Amino acid sequence: MDPRVGFVTQLGMDPLTAIERAGALGFDYVELMLDGETAPHRVADRHDEFADAVADADLDVLVHLPFGGVDIASPFDGVREGSCRAIEDAIDVASALDAEKGVLHAQTNVWGPAWDAEELRPHLVESVAHLAEYGRERDFEVCVENIPRGHFTTTDVPDVVSEAETSMTLDTGHARIDGYDADGMANLVRDAPVSHVHLNDTRRARDEHLAFGSGTIDFATLFDAFADDWAGTLSLEVFTLDYDYLDVSKERLDAMVDERR
């Protein structure tokens, strides 16, 4: 495997500082969380600042597309269509920064007892396929992330991305919540078009987002499942505002990846 490595920005981080530190720590890219201070319209208003910061840091850009308040699988046409437009707007902003791919939550927020997954699945696949094509027209790859314990779980994502003709983001912590151990995650890598990984370490089946190597996920087993020529992206998704934790996480990750190069 020959991946590039980055990290996901967190709420509370100054985004321009995060970009500068990503470059200083030797990351290949930064994955901007397009919400809060870095919501798409706010990034668009400061486009030149972000573009200059990325250029100065000599980084590539990925994004995490908005998900709060977005429902691309809604049975209600207006909600679903408006949600797709919101994602389109985010893709446009990301593309203006030359972002190459973005993480999409393929999920719904509908009232659970009233709707089952089979009714909603066609809406989901149609929306993902539309957004994937919208992205391709802008040289932007849409990578569907596995979200646990919803209408659509980790187990559903490989079929959704296959039907929608796009790729997958594997979130390791989310997979663990859905009952996957390292061997199960490795099988996902072998069977699904995983282009991007959120390295979300945990000690148990919870969304803990620990520093890489601080939990109990067997990443070595997962990485061994990637093909020798796999050249995807690995994002450290650590819930911290302390860049020292990202630094030590990168050191541990680099050492593990180097063993497999």
UniProtKB/TrEMBL annotation:
Task: Give the matching Gene3D superfamilies.
Answer: Divalent-metal-dependent TIM barrel enzymes
What would be an example GO MF term here? isomerase activity
InterPro entries found in the cross-reference section: IolE/XylAMocC-like, Xyl_isomerase-like_sf, Xyl_isomerase-like_TIM-brl
**Which terms are listed as keywords in the entry?**
Isomerase
Keyword field contains Transmembrane helix: no
Domain Xylose isomerase-like TIM barrel intervals: 20-242
Q: Please list the coiled coil stretches.
A: none
The cross-references to Pfam families, in alphabetical order and at most eight, read: AP_endonuc_2
Q: Which SUPFAM superfamilies match?
A: Xylose isomerase-like
Write down what this protein is called: Sugar phosphate isomerase/epimerase family protein
> What is the originating organism of this protein?
Halomarina salina
